[in-house]
Specification:
It is built from 10 helices and 18 strands. It is α+β, with helices and mostly antiparallel strands. Keywords: Coiled coil, Metal-binding, Zinc, Zinc-finger.
Length: about 450
């Protein structure tokens, strides 16, 4: 192949983005081909519809398979260029005056034929330069693929962290309303404590918001760092064979040295409310639940924006053994239609539970739905290896510590409020601030099996 033919051959196998021989080439919807790393970086930086860098045609698919034929031709083109330019590129062994055409894996050096047979190299593995370089490129491409997966995972976590920040700010505003309403029911002498509590919440919320902001920034910087590493590996892949093979393989680009930033778990301190339990015990009702506990199969939505709970009676559908039952429910012994009532429920031996009040009619049906304005429930469930608290109306995450002992429930029927308290900490968990009730309410407790 003469110089003109080689030049034409090389031109057809050149990526129009990096102007180098194709590296892991892919062919997109319009028919044009590019290096996978080049196309990946180009589409990410564009922040627009995925369009062809040459014809600007829109590509519907985000991922493409390697064009195996182009990849083989690109490898041949690199070898042809190396063979054509060997006179100027190949290093000549000073001892034997022969070209160093072999690569020693053990010593990471270039050798001529006679040198490879010397005692210090004879036992080592030797490969032609081009083959060794292509194998090195394949290893780099695998590392780049791993980097891509990590970057995609970090994008998802980053979006979740940003969403968590918005949700947390909304929750802080809601919690201010709950705390203010709680203090309004207390004596005027506690106004100073109320102000101190709100100021502490403001400071703590600010600190947590700063942590979330810093977490988002850290993850963003981490993503940029991964991108820089990706570019560095791309640049290494495009180096000439000999220069590529003499680059140190270890360094800061090793994936094992990369530490992923961890998401922040926002959690506010549960401040004790002075005298709250003494006040609530004035309205205490004992033996609030029926002695009869019924077995139900429960389905709890895992969507943070949907706090729905479904119960199905054990007598309908396929029967199950007690040891694999999903939940055990105990309903209130009587319904309330007026007044103030306070009771405590023990959740010490259950990590996942639901408790609160609901309309009396809801518990007369076989299938029970607890997602309506006729029920006020607090429930704990496991999300990402962490137990969190949720309410159903409105469906909110409660960014406070999960109680591990007794929970107090206070129903103020006339004012239309239901509040939940951590008895051990004598602190408020949350309050339902609704309009006055116009229907009977029954307490209930559901303990999920572990």
């Amino acid at each position: 192949m003469d110089s003109d033919e080689l030049e034409a051959f090389q031109q057809e196998l050149t990526c129009s983005i990096c102007m180098n021989c194709f590296l892991d080439p892919v062919t997109i919807d319009c028919g044009h081909s590019f290096c996978r790393p080049c196309l990946s970086l180009c589409w990410e930086e564009g922040q627009t519809l995925r369009s062809c860098p040459e014809c600007r045609g829109i590509s519907e698919r985000p991922h493409f398979k390697t064009n195996i034929v182009l990849k083989r031709l690109a490898s041949l083109a690199r070898q042809a260029r190396a063979d054509h330019d060997h006179c100027s590129e190949e290093q000549i062994c000073e001892t034997h005056q022969e070209a160093r055409g072999l690569f020693c894996e053990a010593d990471q050096t270039l050798l001529c034929g006679p040198c490879s047979e010397r005692p210090e190299h004879a036992a080592h593995s030797h490969s032609p330069i081009h083959r060794a370089a292509e194998e090195s490129r394949e290893k780099l491409l695998k590392r780049m693929g791993s980097l891509c997966k990590i970057r995609e995972e970090m994008k998802i976590i980053l979006n979740q962290e940003a969403k968590k920040t918005r949700s947390f700010k909304d929750y802080v505003a809601l919690r201010k309303e709950m705390i203010t309403a709680e203090y309004q029911r207390m004596l005027l002498l506690l106004r100073e404590e109320e102000q101190l509590h709100l100021e502490a919440l403001e400071r703590e919320a600010k600190e947590i918001c700063e942590q979330l902001k810093e977490s988002v920034l850290t993850m963003t910087q981490y993503g940029e760092h991964l991108k820089d590493m990706y570019r560095e590996l791309t640049a290494m892949c495009c180096k000439p064979d000999r220069e590529l093979l003499q680059v140190r393989k270890e360094g800061p680009t090793d994936l094992a040295e990369i530490q992923k930033p961890q998401p922040v778990n926002p959690e506010l301190t549960c401040w004790p409310l002075t005298g709250i339990l003494d006040m609530l015990n004035n309205f205490r009702v004992d033996n609030i639940l029926s002695q009869t506990m019924t077995i139900h199969h429960m389905s709890l939505s895992e969507d943070g924006d949907d706090a729905s709970v479904m119960f199905r009676d054990e007598h309908h559908g396929v029967s199950r053994q007690p040891q694999i039952v999903e939940s055990v429910v105990s309903w209130g012994a009587r319904a309330f239609t007026s007044g103030r009532h306070y009771w405590e429920l023990d959740v010490t031996h259950s990590s996942s539970w639901i408790l609160g009040t609901c309309k009396d009619i809801l518990i007369t049906d076989t299938n029970i739905s607890i997602y309506s304005e006729e029920a006020c429930v607090l429930f704990a469930k496991k999300v990402n290896n962490h137990y969190s608290l949720f309410t159903n109306t409105p469906p909110y995450i409660q960014y406070v510590k999960r109680p591990v002992g007794r929970i107090g429930v206070f129903l103020d029927y006339g004012n239309g409020t239901v509040s939940f308290y951590d008895v051990c900490r004598a602190s408020l968990i949350c309050s339902f601030l609704s309009s006055p009730f116009s229907f009977p309410l029954k307490p209930f407790l559901c303990l999920r099996s572990l």
